[in-house]
């Protein structure tokens, strides 16, 4: 009997279904734009231009993320990821995921494919959640925050954000690791 496409079960046809689902979505959106271009061309063109601007804004960060994914897949072995960001990475993994989150740039959604790739190579949910939580701390914005709110506020907020990210990452790991399929 063929397994269904549950989250914890591998389905060999799941890739094709996702691929075809993506094309179906694209065809649906295209059909909606065509109908709107006929019905209300001025507003549809304005919406199309706005979508084009968003696409251009998203294209560069996504290309960078895909280039990083390519390099990681080419150069980094799963044993490296497991050693530095796996469940047994210890303090160095915490420091690495914290620093990487703080220093990371660009829109957060551009990091999702890369983080998924790292997870598939052995990165723990704790370290991925820690990375994402620490993206809220940006050293280049601290002077601006100090200017508007004072150094006590800026320092307190930054330190508490880093510390609370550890709590968030722990809870995420506790919940998500139990749902993660075993390899």
List the helices and strands and how they pair.
Elements: H1 14-39, H2 41-75, H3 78-85, H4 90-103, H5 112-120, H6 125-134, H7 142-149, H8 151-179
Helix pairs in contact: 1-2, 2-5, 4-6, 6-8, 7-8
What are the defining features of this structure?
mainly alpha; 183 residues; disordered N terminus; 8 helices; 76% helix
CA radius of gyration? 21 Å
The DSSP helix count reads 8
Determine the mean pLDDT.
81
How big a fraction of the residues is strand? under 5%
Which structural class matches the secondary elements? mainly alpha
Silhouette: globular
Largest sheet: none
What does this structure look like?
With 183 residues, the protein is mostly helical. The chain has a domain at 59-178. It is built from 8 helices and no strands. It has helices spanning 14-39, 41-75, 78-85, 90-103, 112-120, 125-134, 142-149, 151-179. Helix 7 (142-149) crosses helix 8 (151-179). The relative contact order is 0.09.
Provide a brief overview of the structure.
With 183 residues, this protein is mainly α.
